[in-house]
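Researcher: Sequence recovery benchmark, item below. Answer with residues only.
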């Protein structure tokens, strides 16, 4: 049996309404949103019938009473609610349920998908859900509701980390929660054209950073590939449609090529008496785009633009088919991967080989069994299909435990780590969607898979933390190697240990590639030297207070310390001190935050008389410049000479305050400026309320110096990547200063010109995406 899958459009991978650049043409505009003609709205009852038909397809005998009751409750609860498109809100939960049915989920999951918004958006309570549908559905709905309240686009590191922690905890309680959330996000992405451009980009980035990698980790390619393509479409529309046009430009020629390969392969499978289903396709757009970017190639230079898939009955047939294929076509060296013998971490299995056709066109062939294909499409969801044990209860297969081993690892990190910044970096590395693995062996022949570029140190920590901590050397294929040797596929590795070893070196953090190894090395240093780090942290805070003329007694209130602990995600004050001591946190950050809390409690409310006295003082100093030159409005005065302080570099959009100087006019500071926080009571009497003019704050006119500090793991090429971002954003850089530490970290201070806070935030967000950047903060004095 053979077939070729080609695309008249993107309909098979992306929802039709999200298809073209002109998809909003002809749509009615309501409240600033393009909406469909109401005659085009999808009929909820027709969608419900579609849902039931899809469930019957994979489980003909199931009782759909629960799903029918969920539909009736959701329809009644959402009532006349409308989506941004103008269509009835019930259409959305129906589509979420249909997506879950496409994954062949159980009826509890589908019912929960139908009800996932009722507690959040209607008067229906969790207790009602529990009473009507049982505790299992109530827990799933509650989990999805809580995830819906989380935001992953916050600029605040502690908010991002806390929300991710909550997400992983919800996943650990019941992985179906995140599967429902993925279905919810997929339908929202399919209908994203009804959102504002800013919201489209925000949701696309969130999808690309969080949801698509999680779908990949769970092995659900059915959802992951569509999320990828839609995220690319809305985050970089020009790139997306250019790629679509390039693919479609030679559409007929490519279809004919794939059809020819499919027919040739089908004939040879038949001649070899191998029962096989052969089909061909062009790979999804995001995959092609990433290869073009990572390999700096054009569409025509991508080897595996085409993929032919052979699905057979057994593992034996997989290898038999591979032998036939390699007789038919010339294999391209180094382009064969055996994911059957060595599955990916998400349990994906298949044989991949790239070949050269008779006309000189490279293409990829994937060979797998039907069961492997289901796992590749459905991932973890494959194990929640309607399978029942003898006692009538649903059973989850043992493979599920293997698939979720990475989640257990993350939960261990959550328990072990109080540093939010470090936790975020580890999660980012662990969810890295494009990290290729290398496969190597222990002396006993056990397979270990590690990130590409891993070293013997990574291998040692993959075996056990005690092995890594006592490592003194390594042999690869029987020969001694340096500890920074890059492991190759098939290497046999033996770790040499010694009880006399004093433990890992801090230099190892710059050598290892795997998130697991970095975490275990950091944990060792924190545990071994915690007491020393606490003492060092205290000394560093004391020294900072002395340099800034701050009375430590004013800021050591446990209430203030608790605020700092919450902000940076630490369990106790000693952990904060230890983090300062080992360089994970800056003492200035901590002291400034303590001073903020102290100032809030001791803030003196200014009387009208004091304000008038400041105005009079400004007048005595004979300052007189029109407000339009600075963009500042001084309350109670039409114009005043102003200057922007270099200590905190305010830009339009920041909260600001004015300080009346003697003879130099008004000095403008951010309200969180350290110099403003540390004013004496007498100096506070010289503060004046000020604000930005509307046109300056809203339209980003004028040029302002912004200064930031970047804390990063020191590595080669980082400054070049930073410079590329400034160049791409057309930012005029005025200064840059770099300091590195013995611990392998770097502090990069830079000043550049922006037109307002919006532009500054955009630049900072792009800088935060650079590998190795730990944190970015504005200068505050």
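Model:
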């Amino acid at each position: 049996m053979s077939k070729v899958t080609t695309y008249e459009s993107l309909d098979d991978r992306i929802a039709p309404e999200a298809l073209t650049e002109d998809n909003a043409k002809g749509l009615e505009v309501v409240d600033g949103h393009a909406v469909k003609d109401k005659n085009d709205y999808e009929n909820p009852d027709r969608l419900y019938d579609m849902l039931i038909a899809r469930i019957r397809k994979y489980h003909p005998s199931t009782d759909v009473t629960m799903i029918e009751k969920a539909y009736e409750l959701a329809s009644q609860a959402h009532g006349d609610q409308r989506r941004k498109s103008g269509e009835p809100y019930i259409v959305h939960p129906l589509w979420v349920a249909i997506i879950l049915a496409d994954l062949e989920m159980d009826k509890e999951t589908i019912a929960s998908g139908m009800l996932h918004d009722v507690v959040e958006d209607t008067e229906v309570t969790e207790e009602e859900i529990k009473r009507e549908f049982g505790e299992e559905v109530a827990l799933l709905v509650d989990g999805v509701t809580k995830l819906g309240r989380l935001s992953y686009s916050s600029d605040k590191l502690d908010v991002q980390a806390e929300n991710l922690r909550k997400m992983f905890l919800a996943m650990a309680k019941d992985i179906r929660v995140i599967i429902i959330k993925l279905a919810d996000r997929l339908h929202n992405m399919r209908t994203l054209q009804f959102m504002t451009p800013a919201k489209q980009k925000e949701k696309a980035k969130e999808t690309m950073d969080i949801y698509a990698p999680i779908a990949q980790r769970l092995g659900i390619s059915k959802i992951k590939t569509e999320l990828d393509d839609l995220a690319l479409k809305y985050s970089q529309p020009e790139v997306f449609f250019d790629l679509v046009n390039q693919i479609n430009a030679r559409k007929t020629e490519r279809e004919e090529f794939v059809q020819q390969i499919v027919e040739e392969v089908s004939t040879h499978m038949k001649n070899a008496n191998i029962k096989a289903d052969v089909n061909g396709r062009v790979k999804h757009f995001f995959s092609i785009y990433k290869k073009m970017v990572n390999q700096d190639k054009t569409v025509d230079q991508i080897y595996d633009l085409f993929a032919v898939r052979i699905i057979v009955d057994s593992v034996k047939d997989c290898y038999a088919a591979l032998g036939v294929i390699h007789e038919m076509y010339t294999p391209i060296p180094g382009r064969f991967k055996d994911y059957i013998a060595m599955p990916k971490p998400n349990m994906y299995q298949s044989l991949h080989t790239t070949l050269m056709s008779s006309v000189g066109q490279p293409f990829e062939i994937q060979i797998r069994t039907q069961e492997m294909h289901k796992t590749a499409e459905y991932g973890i969801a494959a194990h929640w299909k309607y399978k029942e044990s003898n006692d009538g209860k649903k059973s989850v297969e043992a493979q599920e435990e293997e698939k979720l081993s990475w989640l257990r690892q993350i939960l261990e990190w959550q328990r072990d780590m109080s540093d939010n910044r470090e936790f975020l970096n580890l999660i980012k590395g662990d969810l890295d969607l494009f990290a290729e693995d290398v496969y190597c062996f222990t002396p006993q022949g056990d397979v270990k898979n590690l990130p590409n570029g891993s070293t013997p140190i990574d291998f040692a920590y993959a075996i056990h933390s005690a092995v890594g901590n006592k490592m003194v050397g390594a042999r690869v294929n029987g020969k001694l190697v340096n500890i920074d040797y890059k492991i190759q596929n098939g290497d046999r590795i033996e770790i040499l240990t010694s009880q006399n070893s004093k433990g890992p070196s801090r230099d190892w953090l710059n050598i290892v590639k795997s998130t697991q190894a970095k975490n275990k090395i950091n944990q060792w240093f924190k545990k071994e030297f915690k007491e020393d780090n606490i003492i060092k942290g205290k000394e560093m805070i004391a020294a900072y207070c002395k340099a800034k003329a701050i009375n430590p007694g004013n800021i050591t209130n446990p209430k203030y310390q608790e605020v700092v602990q919450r902000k940076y995600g630490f369990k106790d004050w000693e952990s904060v001190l230890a983090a300062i001591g080992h360089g994970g946190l800056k003492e200035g950050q901590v002291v400034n935050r303590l001073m903020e809390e102290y100032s809030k409690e001791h803030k003196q409310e200014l009387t009208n008389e004091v304000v008038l006295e400041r105005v009079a003082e400004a007048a005595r100093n004979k300052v007189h410049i029109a407000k339009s030159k600075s963009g500042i409005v001084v309350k109670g005065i039409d114009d005043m000479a102003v200057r922007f302080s270099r200590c905190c570099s305010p830009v339009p959009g920041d909260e600001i305050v004015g300080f009346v100087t003697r003879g130099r006019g008004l000095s403008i500071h951010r309200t969180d400026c350290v110099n403003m926080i540390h004013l004496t009571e007498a100096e506070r009497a010289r503060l004046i309320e000020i604000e930005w003019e509307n046109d300056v704050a809203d339209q980003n006119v004028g040029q302002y110096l912004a200064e930031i500090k970047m804390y990063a793991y020191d590595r080669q090429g980082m400054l070049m990547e930073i410079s590329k971002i400034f160049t791409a954003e057309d930012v005029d850089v005025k200064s840059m200063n770099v300091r590195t530490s013995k611990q392998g970290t770097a502090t990069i201070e830079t000043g550049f010109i922006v037109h307002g806070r919006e532009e500054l935030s955009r630049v900072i967000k792009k800088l935060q995406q650079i590998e190795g950047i730990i944190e970015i903060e504005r200068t505050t004095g």
